Amino acid sequence: MKHRTFRLNAIASLFAASAAAGAADLPAAPVDVVVVSGSRIEHGSFDLPASIDVIDRARIVDAQARVNASESLSAVPGLTAQNRQNYAQDLQISSRGFGARSAFGVRGVRLIADGIPASMPDGQGQAATFNLDMAERIEVLRGPFSAIYGNHSGGTIQLFTRDGQGSPSVEATVMGGSDGIRKLDTNAQGQANGIGYVADVSRFETDGYRSHSAATRDQAFAKLTMTPSATSKLTLVANALRQDDTQDPLGATWSTFQRDPRAGEIDANDTQTPKRTIAERYNTRKSIDHQQAGLAYDQHFGQDRLHLTLYGGNRTVIQYQAFSKFLQTAPTQSGGVVDFDRNFYGADINWTWVRALAGGKLNTTVGVDYGRSADDRTGYENFIGADYGLKGKLRRDETDTVSSADPYMQAEWQGGPWVLSGGLRHSSVKFKVGDRYLANGDDSGGVDYSHTTPVLGVLYRVSPLLNVYASAARGFETPTLNELFYSGAGKGFNYALRAASSTHTEAGIKALVGGNTRVDAALFQVKTGDELVVDVSSGGRTSYRNASNTLRRGAEVSVDSNFGAGVSARLALTALRATYEQGFGSVPAGSRLPGVARANAFAELAWKSGDGGLGAAIEAIASGKVYADDANRDVPAPGYTVLNARVQAKQDAGGWQFREFARLNNLLDRGYVGSVIVGDANKRYYEAAPGRNWLAGVSARYSF
To answer: I need a labelling partner for 492 at 20 to 30 A (CA). Which of 117, 220, 261, 698 fits?
Structure first.
């Protein structure tokens, strides 16, 4: 496949020229948005000494499938969200390189939905639990201030869903597209007797772009908001996710990807003719059943506030992996079928008070965050006789418990042109294993981690149009439960893994330019010790080890412009140098961290009619090359640039509103690797992205 050179400067020049052409008689700059991430209180993002972007409802919902958070997160600098075309393993999300090593799920980035963690106490999260159909906005926090959220906070992504308001309405949406994509979503919302309500159910189906990648996903969501008194608010939220027998296509070698991006890896040991792929022979798949519910209560006492969050849920998973019969009969192996039933719950309570101090205003928040998860986990051989992909003999039986208890404090003082912020959090994470399968020895035991993470930030208002800021923090990242499961030799739990610790620094500007443009730019550095890296990855099972020190240095720029006449543009650029500063094993010093590109870019030029009835946009998404191995010896996934286009329309007729949209992704039909499986022992690193593909949908809403 011909290598396609990645050029950020061409995209930047295009948008710079567009801005210059429309510099006269332009409307006001994009308005400041209110955020709660970083400071835990409502705050204008322009005056926050941190890198934070807000994705509004229009970007999440309009002309999107609303299935994967990557659809809208690609517009955020410093953040990489890759759709792996594998609904059995979820998205790959990384923030400034944190989380890039994840074999499945989200690590290194904290996920929160309506104030309720979508990450477990060990730091592992599932972006699939986000309900994008009812999303109001997503806040993406990067850099030092993420550390105030504790373990695994290389970045923080918070989803906020809409509240039920106004007269009742019902809505139905139907979508279809390439590779057998089908989605049906229905929802109702409104307010009655002071109670706001939202309810949503959806089904998504796809035949899959890659071989053996079909999936069906059912989601349900409900939300109630009420005001018990004039000074309080109570919110109740419940959601559910179900995926039955979601096929796992696994990765492919470079030669297979070049031959056919859709193809799976042929199993050389298969006795059938023609030989099946590894995924087909083992019928690799995963079933997920996830439910959770929570409440948030706010009581105001003048400017002071008491906040309480309570939540709990259950997650069951059964996964069939691709392990050979030879390995599974070894006495140290736990089988190729993972089966667990997880109960989890937690609470966050905090108190915020506001006082005048030294001619300014001081906001102080003190609280404690607690979470606990308990897995009833079993493992089985994935064959019976000569037949694979079946639940065979028991090879694992245990209880795995993870708990975290984190007291924290944050304060912010605003006076004159200054904003001073600080915070302190002490995290204590405990892992405990009770082994009931003793045929291969007793792996019972546990390991505790604790760390104190301070955060400091200062912002100076140079003028009403320009703010400069700097911030610093200490952070840490424990192994997740899955990262502790196996040692490199496959011999049970790896209790010797250490938590990674990091030092974050950042400096940036926030500016309003020319009356129509907002520019946010930041320089950052992260030094990490005991970085957690992939040791061995094969067939869906991955073990980890501690490596040497790493260094991340980079820059982020985002530009939002309104040119008038309904024309707007967004540009998001990231440059990141992430390297091992010390060699380890066969990895030389200076090697780039796998899964991390040196540069990423997003650019969009959009138009919307004055009445909002018509809209169109063109998008460009680009990435530099990505290595999949620590030593950078194997073929990297080449850089790429893809173009997408969308159109949408809206009509109102009495109580009815109709919407239509169409998207054409990868207009130039580029063949490229969308994501990589870091450290795969069989060099099956590459996960292909689709060629040219389309999506279209219609919706109808009736307001009573």
So the answer is: 117
**pLDDT < 50 stretches in the chain:** 1-27, 326-332
CA distances from 404 to 85, 144, 426, 428, 703 (A): 33, 21, 10, 5, 45
Contacts for 16 with CB less than 8 Å, ≥ 6 apart: none
Token readout for 345 is 């719950």
Q: How many CB atoms lie within 10 A of CB 423?
A: 24
Question: In what helix (H) or strand (E) does residue 513 lie, and over which residues does it extend?
Answer: strand 500-513
Burial of 427 (0-12, 13-18, 19+ CB in 10 A): buried
Tokens standing for 676?
Answer: 């990589």
Q: What is the DSSP letter of 451?
A: E
Phi/psi for 343 (5° steps) reads -110, 135
Task: Give CA–CA dist 436/572, Å, rounded.
Answer: 51
Cα(404)–Cα(272) distance, integer angstroms: 50
Residue 3 is predicted with a pLDDT of 42
DSSP character at residue 122? T
Extended strands (E) in 5-122: 34-35, 43-44, 51-56, 79-82, 92-95, 110-113, 116-117
Give tens-digit pLDDT for 219-242: 999 999 999 999 999 999 999 999
What is the greatest pairwise CA distance in the chain? 82
The answer to whether 688 touches 261, Cβ cutoff 8 Å, is: yes
Contact 225, 195 (CB under 8 A): yes
Residues 294 and 224: their CA atoms lie apart, in Å, by: 11
Q: Which parts of 205-304 fold into alpha helices (H)?
A: 254-259, 278-282
Helices (H) and strands (E) in the chain, counts: 7, 37
What's the confidence (pLDDT) of residue 543? 81
Amino acid at 159: L
- The CA-CA-CA angle for residues 293, 294, 296, to 5°, reads 160
The CB density around residue 319, as the number of other CB atoms within 10 Å, is 22
Q: What is the secondary structure of 608-631 as a DSSP string?
A: E-TTSSEEEEEEEEEE--B--STT
Q: What pLDDT, on a 0 to 100 scale, did the predictor assign at position 153?
A: 78
Cβ neighbours of 359 (radius 10 Å) = 8
Q: Residue 439 is encoded by which pair of tokens? A: 């045929």
Cβ atoms within 10 Å of 53's Cβ, excluding its own: 23
Would you list the domain boundaries of the chain? 8-703
CATH topology of domain 8-703: Maltoporin; Chain A (2.40.170)
Residue in 694, 687, 581 with CA at minimum distance from that of residue 646:
694
Partners of 618 in the beta sheet? 605, 645
C-beta atoms surrounding 591 within 10 Å: 21
Look up residue 639 and give its two tokens: 């850089």
pTM (two decimals)? 0.93
Please tell me the number of Cα atoms within 13 Å of 51 on its side-chain side: 33
Q: Comparing C-alpha atoms, which of 381, 373, 380 is closest to residue 399?
A: 373
- The Cα 694–Cα 674 span in angstroms is 17
| Structure-block tokens of residue 354 | 């506001």
- Classify each residue of 59-78 as buried b or exposed e, where b means 16 or more C-beta atoms within 10 Å of its C-beta: bbbbbbbbbbbbbbbbbbbb
- CA distances to 204, 312, 600, 659, 660 from 700, rounded to whole Å, are 18, 34, 37, 7, 9
How far CA 561 is from CA of 24, 30, 102, 335, in Å, comes to 13, 7, 35, 55
**Could you give the CA distance from residue 395 to residue 439 in angstroms, rounded to a whole number?**
8
